[in-house]
Amino acid sequence: MNKFYLTTPIYYVNANPHLGHAFTTIVADVATRFHRMMGDDAVFITGTDEHGDKIVQAAEKAGKAPEVFTTEVSDSFRALWPKLETEPHAFMRTTDPAHIKEVQAFLQRVYDSGDIYFGEYGGHYCLGCERFYTEKELENGMCPQHLTKPEYISEKNYFFRMSKYADWLKDHIRNNPDFIRPERYRTEALALLESGELEDLCISRPKSRLTWGIELPFDKDYVCYVWFDALLTYISALGGVESEGFAKYWPSAQHLVAKDILKPHAIFWPTMLKAANLPIYNHLNVHGYWLVRDMKMSKSIGNVVSPLGMAEQYGIDAFRYFLLREMHFGNDASFSEDALVARLNADLANDLGNLYSRVLAMTAKFCGSRVPAPGAFTPLEEDLVRLADDSMRNFQMLLGSMRFSQGIEALWELVRGLNKYVDTAAPWALAKNGETERLHTVLYMLLECMRKIALHVWPIMPGKAERMLEQLGVPFDGAKANLQGEIGHFNGLVPGTEVAKNSNLFPRVELAAKEEAPAPAPVNEKKTPAPKAKEAAKATEAPATIQFEDFAKIDMRAGTVVECEPHPNADKLLRVLVDLGEEKPRQVLAGIAAYFAPQDLVGKQVVVVANLAPRAMRGLDSHGMILAVKTETGLELVQASGVVPNGSQVS
Known about the structure:
Elements: E1 3-12, H1 19-37, E2 41-49, H2 53-62, H3 66-83, E3 90-93, H4 97-112, E4 116-126, E5 131-133, E6 151-160, H5 166-175, E7 180-181, H6 183-194, E8 201-202, E9 204-206, E10 215-216, E11 219-224, H7 226-230, H8 233-236, H9 244-249, E12 253-258, H10 262-275, E13 283-287, E14 290-292, E15 295-296, H11 307-314, H12 316-326, E16 333-334, H13 337-367, H14 379-400, H15 404-425, H16 427-432, H17 436-457, H18 462-471, H19 533-540, H20 548-552, E17 556-566, E18 574-579, E19 586-590, H21 598-601, E20 605-609, E21 615-617, E22 620-622, E23 625-626, E24 628-631, E25 634-637
Parallel strand pairs: 1-2, 1-12, 2-3, 7-13, 12-13, 14-16
Antiparallel strand pairs: 4-5, 4-6, 6-8, 9-11, 10-11, 14-15, 17-18, 17-20, 18-19, 20-23, 21-22, 24-25
């Protein structure tokens, strides 16, 4: 049996968990459940990172000893996971004696090999990052993460010879394209290594400045740097290097992190493992930020989302579904209640819920709520079988590579296809005309495909999926369920099985009317003055009427996307190369990264405003605008009704 071992970051306990922590842990849970459904021995671990300057500072602010403060916050993380229906294999605290023992053994191992040395260092220390920055790494003298001026500290410390392994790591990343994914973060890690800025890593703090940490085994006057400590949780949570758990699961190790901690995981961690002569992990999976009103969540801004509040209000399964469906893994995504409600109504109530409601009601009316025996297939059923197999195969392939949103969309092609099949096959007409065998075939195919959908959504919505299966008369059995076995087989339901008379698993959700709060002002920026009365009134007016001559000036042309990638300096933008029938493809920067993955656009035809004046956007020039339509669930591209020659003018 194949193994699958996934880790979340070891969450820092200077504050209670928020949406970002919930998302990462839910993703880990979904991926682990999925791999179990694919027949793998799959587990994931999580935990809390409890040492360092920031913890001491937060504890002092709360008027508590670090031991008390960290226990309280760590307990809040541990208590949240069952409420979000996540089931980690282990939860490890960095203050746990077993972890401390493992860290000290690892430090001694690397020290004995000669890769840790004592020296004096002066550098720019950011308390928020708990790390030293070089002059090159600072942006206008400020920490690039916190936009604050670091304190210059000069002191004697222990250093890890990280630079010794830079060439080895560059070669490994180049030779293993899937080592860091998505691609944009692999490129970023290589850029860090090739910049010449990689120096040896300071791995200690003198006790004269910090006592809250793990003591170095070879010098009792120093404690371990928080990152050198926390990363080793991925091993200590399995029982340590010498354990059966490490031997069993570490060869299949993958990590799941947000983009702000790419460097410790992509650079520090593999070089640490190499120095200790231990196997390195297989994949580093990096996701973007959840934004609220286009800003990263921050306590200082006041836009932190409580995951438990959202889950309690809308249901944990619906909440999990929204998070996985809304974020294209690797890109940033925007969170709002409006988007959550729109997604739940469109995907769950209208598509999936309506399907279950219609089909179970018809089965009750025409078959006494019993699964009918199917007859011969017509081309309509043969098309449905192909759609179902393609949908399931794509879902499994995409979830296996951490592309959750695209995987769900692939499965929803079957959901929407089944609703269309109901309308086309018209079971009510078959019943009216006495075509009983044909009626039974149609209803059987619908019920059987609904069973397959329920199994596939179980990793994402376990509670709802189990109720869906119960309504079909086949209670969930995790020991027998295997998604790969669902492809090519359409006989999972036994005729005569009793099914529910009706279904209301996904009722429509109404967003309570409430006064819109003003958007918080960005940190370190001046507030924009309120518009004058005339300007405010003008902003609410309808768009001005234009003459035909004005419209005729706009040159809109159809073209095919030949290449697409994230903008290197802007999370919301995609760099799109469009073939407009010109000598070379046109570069267009489109603010649609939150709605479309780059690979999904390649090959699609789009409409471009071709005579728009060029505009510089974050270091690149955009030569046009791709047209899209805002919908209640996101964006849809403006396209011709059929394929047209590249460069065709819209008129």
